[in-house]
Task: structure prediction
Amino acid sequence: MHSWTQRLLAAATTAALLLAATCAAASALDAFHVPSVEAQAHVTKINQFRKQLNGNDKVTLTFNISAKLESLFTWNTKQVFVFVTAEYENSKNSLNQVSLWDRIIPDKDHANVQVEVKSKYPLIDQGTSLRGKKVQLVLHWHIMPNAGRMMRGKMPLSEFNLPDTYTS
Amino acid sequence: MGFIGDQVESIRSMQVRQVLSQIISLGMIVTSALIIWKGLMVATGSESPVVVVLSGSMEPGFKRGDILFLTMSNEPIRTGEIVVFNIDGREIPIVHRVIKVHERQESAEVDILTKGDNNFGDDRLLYAQGQLWLQKHHIMGRAVGYLPYVGWVTIVMTEKPIIKYLLIGALGLLVITSKE
Result:
């Protein structure tokens, strides 16, 4: 005969295994989900462009974003973290990737983003390479599941040129 | 006399065998746990493949008590990834999101800035004094998998050690008293 402890152990083991299998299956299903994101973003204004006291270029800007992110959501999606980066290359760095703005999207109903925003974080260079620099705006998303694998994706949007001189 | 002596001898040898087999089964449990942990370390390349979220700085994504699975590969770190990093002079590693990356031309050395999703400002206040960036060697791993609530087990056990000892005692008793 089986004692109650053995029964309990067997039940707990089965439960844990089933949960693990469900998580694995959910992640596997998510891997086959191909989202189709439509998005645009344009810089509408350079608010301030100057050299900081520590010698680094600093830009604050305004841009509009229009992004339809509904397709990122599946039944296993807890939230989507969406953000816009400014990306450029200069003589010092092969990649500069600076977050300008981000937002947490809790569900599908909030996944149609149409906003004009000021950069939440300023674009700060490591040095003074930003005058006249061509900078790429890129939309990124990071999908957090209820349980399982986290996924990322990105989409290059528009390019903009910074002015040749600092604003006052 | 001879008959009783035989009986005592047989019982004694039975018990010795049973005790031995119990010790071995206990050893199996401990070593298989160790094998799983070390195997995960090898598979993920991270010195701590599983971490428990201890603070609310990444809410609503990660809450206290959730667990994260980490990997450590040579793939470059990019903005948006959630990394676990160590700061000199701080015991507990931090789980936050990368918001800035500057990667050098030749050396591919990298400067990283992080921020908690639920925090207002970036992490420079959490870094060591005068430290502006994280480098590669600060990073313990990047989060790739997520499981809610499971980490509460370890939080409860570290904060209420008596529960830990009770649990270990009960499990040990179970192993020792169980037959077949």
Q: What stands out?
A: The interface with chain B takes residues 3, 5-6, 23, 27, 78-79, 81, 83, 85, 91-99, 102, 104, 106, 121, 126, 140-142, 144-150, 152, 154 of chain A (CB under 8 Å).
